[in-house]
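Hi everyone, sorry if this is the wrong subforum. Our group has a chain we'd like a structural model of before ordering constructs, and none of us has done structure prediction before. Sequence below.
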Amino acid sequence: MTTQPFEFGDAIGHFFKTMGRRPGGTLWVALWNSILISVVFGAVIWMVAPAYLSVLDTAMTGEEPDASEVWAIMGPFLFVFPLAFFGSIIAALVAQGAWLRLLVRDEIAAGIPLRFGGDELRLLVVNLLYMVLGIAFYIAFVVLVIVMGIAFAGSDGGLAAGATAALIGGTFVLLALVIAVFLGVRLSAAPALTVYDRKIRFFESWGATSRIFWWLLLTYLVMAVIIFAAQSILGTMIQVIFLGAFFPMFMEMSQVSDAGAMEPQVWIDMLRDQLSDPATLGIFAVGIVLSVFLQTFCEALWHSVGAYTAIRHRTPPAEAPAASPVVTTPPAPEGPAPE
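Answer:
Right subforum, don't worry. Here is the predicted structure as tokens:
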């Protein structure tokens, strides 16, 4: 099937064009994705915080805990970690589905735009295929390294053999990195195609990225630079907010240190008092929300490249308008008109 030509500017600016076309909807999706991620990670921190404080208290006493204390501390971790693992996967799929519906189909679910339905289940399968492919690639690389190690172990050794092994090993690592990048770019459109077609599309991404690999690689590199710059600039501002939340505690710690009171329990009590202060919690919450909001937009920027690739692959090029027929009028005959 003939597709549209790849436009580098459109690939970079697909998210910004979508936001310009539907600014309210884009901010609405970003807001709810931020709320979702904040709630998930906030719940995890809230559930494991008592266990961390128990570990800290036990460490400050300097006494070895008995088996009952260890199990009391480990209990929340054993319960929370599997819950956090599956909860994070569901949250990531819901966020990915909401963004791709907007970026690919120009759709925003009514009300709260977060769903866990057919799109998210199909995206789960696609992401599992990514994982299986990555694991298979990693196993193949490890087996190859082991075979190489056994082969060189059977040699007579020496400086030349060691240098050769290092050179070949470095070459294989570089080759593996190149193959991983190549596969990642060629299969990058699979989630967007899956949402576009409402069917599981994984290897179809190979056709969608055919003959545009270098353009896509350049697009992802530029997008990575944009994301890095945004995180560096805005991330520094957010860190200043966090610093402002704990600045009073740092000043008090400095005064206590000058006074010579350096007991660990003093530091723990100061930290607890600071974390229980409503003003500190409010500033801390603002910093976390801004951090999550920034991360949400960065994920949307990254998804937008695959979304553009899928739309380009599924949209045929505009046909040129048919030329109007040229009507020619025969010339009038010369001479006198017939009577």
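For your construct planning: Confidence is low (pLDDT under 50) at residues 319-327. The CA atoms of residues 332 and 338 lie 13 Å apart.
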